[in-house]
Amino acid sequence: MSWRKLIIATHRDVGYFFAGLTVIYAVSGIAVNHIEDWNPSYVIRTEMGSVGELPAGDNAIMATAVLDRLGITDRPKSVVRMAPDQLKIFLDRRTLTVAVPSGEVLDEHARRRYAFFEVNYLHLNHGKGFWTWFADLYAVGLMVLAGTGIFIITGRKGLGGRGRWLLIAGLLIPIVYLVLVVWS
Amino acid sequence: MRRVITISLAIAFLATTPVFAGSDFVEYGEGVTIEKAVSVKTLLAAPDDYVGKTVRVDGVITGVCKMRGCWMQLTDPETGNGVRIKVDDGVIVFPYEAMGRKASAEGVFQVITLTPEQVQARAEQQAGEPAQAEGEGCDKADQKKDGSGEGAGCDAPVQDNRVLVVHGTGAVIYS
């Protein structure tokens, strides 16, 4: 097999293998880039309410009263008295911040943002372990795609012509940006 | 080719089974190496004694940076007092879903003096809703230009306009 055929075959197979992950990382990349404007992984809502005056007693008694009055049957992960006048009840993806003894409740509940939670989980490598290795393999795969991609076409549209100028332009953008923003 | 797909699926499946992935805690960053934790009560009683020292703090997670997961609040459930664990953006990301879980964190203890703007934002926040958990005003006053902040947000513990922060290098969150 000639080196050109090898390059084309490598580019083709590695490209097929990592096409799906490239889309996943690209979607997450856009989502995370705009983190100033939105929470890319969760939809978090807060509501104010009241359960009425709370009974005297320890944290467990007050937490039970709050949950009963709100009709919540889930068992809390924990209950913490943050201050004499504030109790926090932690449920699965839901936190109740309760004013004591008035019973005003700030109900903060979150749900995972459909699809985005999962793509961000992968892209930001929250899973660690196996995914670290696979993500490293993907990074190597991208370098292989870049390295083979520039040699696929020969002639006027390849590295000897337009391809060379596009390659230089693509490299210049991050370099100029660094010069103007970071190194100045 | 079918063999390649089968092997890929088998690796992915094995990597997600409890044998490979699972235990009753999740480690973040460098984890926790110090055996004995300094209690929040001790830190609050004499913060200057611990500035610049690497400490371990245990507690319940009562707050997490919603957008970036770049800090969490570890609170002593007995007293309600806590310490802000601030980590470098992107290096460690504390999951929002960890709220309410027990955790240990390790890092260098720091005391940050609030700016007048932060003091004002904090006062405005406290004058608001009594049950308000976390305020936009304080968090915005805390933000650097890059959005990372120093971890001196609204519900971070304050003593004499100083916020107590552990610059976290690692943590363990228990399930």
| Class from helix and strand fractions of chain A | alpha+beta
Order of helices and strands of chain A: HEHEEEEHHH
The global form of chain A is: elongated
The biggest sheet of chain A, with number of strands, parallel, antiparallel or mixed sense and barrel status, is: 5 strands, antiparallel
Q: What is the C-alpha radius of gyration of chain A, as a whole number of Å?
A: 27 Å
**Strand count of chain A:** 5
How many DSSP-defined strands of chain B? 7
Q: How would you describe what is shown here?
A:
The complex is a heterodimer of chains A (184) and B (175). With 184 residues, chain A is of the alpha+beta class. Chain A folds into 3 domains: 1-41 and 114-152, no CATH class; 42-112, no CATH class; 154-184. Chain A contains 5 helices and 5 strands, in the order αβαββββααα. Chain A has a 5-stranded antiparallel sheet, with helices on one face. In chain A, helix 1 (3-33) crosses helix 4 (130-149). Chain A is elongated. Chain B has 175 residues and is of the alpha+beta class. Chain B has one domain: OB fold (Dihydrolipoamide Acetyltransferase, E2P) (Beta Barrel). Chain B is built from 5 helices and 7 strands. Chain B has helices at residues 2-16, 18-21, 40-45, 116-126, 136-142, and strands at 25-29, 54-64, 71-75, 82-86, 102-113, 158-159, 162-174. A 5-stranded mixed barrel of chain B has the order 2-3-4-7-5. In chain B, strand 3 (71-75) and strand 4 form a beta hairpin. In chain B, helix 4 packs antiparallel against helix 5. Chain B is elongated, with a radius of gyration of 19 Å. Chain B starts with a helix and ends with a strand. The relative contact order of chain B is 0.22. Mean pLDDT of chain B is 78; it is low at 129-149. Classes of the chains: A alpha+beta (184), B alpha+beta (175). Chains A and B meet through strand 1, strand 2, strand 3, strand 4 and strand 5 of A and helix 1 of B.
